[in-house]
Design a protein that fits this description.
It is a single chain. With about 400 residues, the protein is mainly α. The chain has a domain of about 160 residues. It contains 13 helices and eight strands. The strands form three sheets. The protein has a three-stranded antiparallel sheet with strand order 1-4-3, with no helix packed on it. Strands 2-6-7 form a three-stranded mixed sheet. Strand 6 and strand 7 form a beta hairpin. Helix 3 runs antiparallel to helix 7 and helix 7 runs parallel beside helix 9. The chain is elongated and about 135 Å long. The chain starts with 9 loop residues before the first strand and ends with a helix.
Length: about 400
């Protein structure tokens, strides 16, 4: 989003309370010795517009999925097509994914998992927390609220887009389901009168239920496969880029395998219950995966947070544990040993009351130490030169000295 100087109001921070060292303003600059903040006036209008667009997409997805406002293309079929004469429901199937369970798992479970992940990021992360000020310096949007709005909003936008794309292709293709002829039960006269056993329309069907016949022509692509693959891939990208703490190397692949396995089971159940052809499921997986990759990689930028890094000469970098809210709330005593390596922290750095002690070597102390070493070296060289000169003078004979 482009921001011009005319559209950005600059105000000076007047609060006497120093902010948390882990909170960094997204837009700030220095003018002399005064710290100024830039107010973002674009966030609320853009957020309102995005909410309206999301509501329009949700309404369109609802009409495409649950109403018959849009007609279905009636593709001509053959009376003797064996691929369309399977049973309406395969009762010998190992399992079947219920519609309520499917919508709950794909529409509610990923936002709940993102919410838990953001709570963990807010509690355990030691990275600077970027805040945004909207319309005034006191109107602040914290990190967790902004990230939840972004990630869950992008997920809903992607799932509505996937649903619209899938149902739009269904209406335009009009491919019959594997049980279409079993449900239609055409009479023999219509099939005999048609040329090459090719019949069109639904007038030759014995079944007069319009809704069932309409649903029987919506096989390509699989709605279960596209929605489940989108939800799974989007969640997998989120967990793969968020679970980077030490000790989560086994948890991350476990969550990815469980999420991907559930999506595969959803598509496999459609094949076992004779609801879709294998081509429908494959194309459904391709559509959902493509949309999820686009939203996760290009729109959400792999769920990474870009913050302004503080200057090391102005702000002393704290320990990672001291920046984490978990270690602020629950103090854990630390013990130091006499022998420490260069990567080991020395001393007690947190007392549970917010007191922080700089860690590592002090730059001023190092500079002073180097200066003293250089001065000592110069003094030692000078003393050595004077000693050599005195020895040379003493070694000169006395007669030459008299001369």
């Amino acid at each position: 989003m482009s921001k011009s100087e005319d559209d950005i109001v600059v105000c000076q921070e007047s609060s006497g309370i120093k902010p948390d060292v882990t909170e960094v303003d997204s837009l700030q600059f220095m003018e002399g010795e005064e710290s100024h903040l830039k107010i973002n006036h674009f966030l609320l209008p853009v957020l309102t517009m995005e909410i309206l667009i999301l509501m329009c997409l949700a309404l369109l997805a609802y009409y495409l999925r649950f109403t018959d406002e849009f007609p279905v293309f009636e593709r001509p079929i053959y009376c003797n097509d064996s691929t369309l004469k399977l049973p309406i429901y395969n009762y010998n199937a190992i399992f079947d994914v219920n519609l309520q369970i499917f919508y709950t798992a794909t529409c509610l479970l990923p936002p709940i998992m993102i919410l838990l992940g953001e709570l963990g990021y807010w509690i355990f992360s030691a990275k600077p927390r970027k805040i945004i000020r909207v319309h005034c310096s006191s109107c602040r949007i914290t990190l967790i609220i902004r990230r939840l709005l972004r990630f869950i909003g992008a997920f809903l936008l992607g799932i509505f887009s996937t649903s619209i794309l899938t149902d739009g292709i269904k209406l335009m293709s009009g491919r019959p389901r594997p049980f279409f002829l079993t449900l239609c039960d055409p009479d023999g006269i219509s099939c005999k009168l048609s040329t090459s056993d090719l019949i069109n329309g639904t007038s030759f069907c014995s079944t007069r239920d319009v809704d069932l016949l309409r649903n029987a022509r919506l096989s390509f692509p699989s709605f279960y496969a596209s929605i489940s693959s989108y939800a799974a891939v989007y969640t997998m990208i989120y967990f793969h880029n968020m679970l980077r703490m030490h000790g989560t190397y086994a948890l991350r692949p476990l969550l990815l395998l469980i999420t991907g396995g559930l999506a595969l089971l959803a598509g496999y159940s459609r094949l076992m219950t004779n609801q879709n052809h294998w081509e429908d499921v494959a194309i459904g997986y391709a559509i959902g995966t493509s949309v999820a990759l686009y939203f996760g990689i290009f729109i959400m930028n792999l769920f990474q947070e870009h913050t302004i890094k503080p200057k090391p000469e102005l702000i002393m970098p704290p320990r990672p544990e001291d920046n984490s809210r978990f270690f602020r709330w629950f103090w854990i005593p630390r013990i130091s040993f006499g022998k420490t390596s260069s990567r080991t922290y020395r001393g007690v750095y947190s007392n549970g009351k917010g007191t922080k002690v700089p860690f590592g070597p002090n730059p001023a102390f190092q500079q002073d130490l180097h200066q003293k070493i250089e001065n000592f070296g110069r003094k030692q060289k000078k003393q050595d030169a004077n000693t050599v000169l005195e020895e040379t003078i003493e070694s000169v004979p006395e007669d030459r000295t008299d001369q």
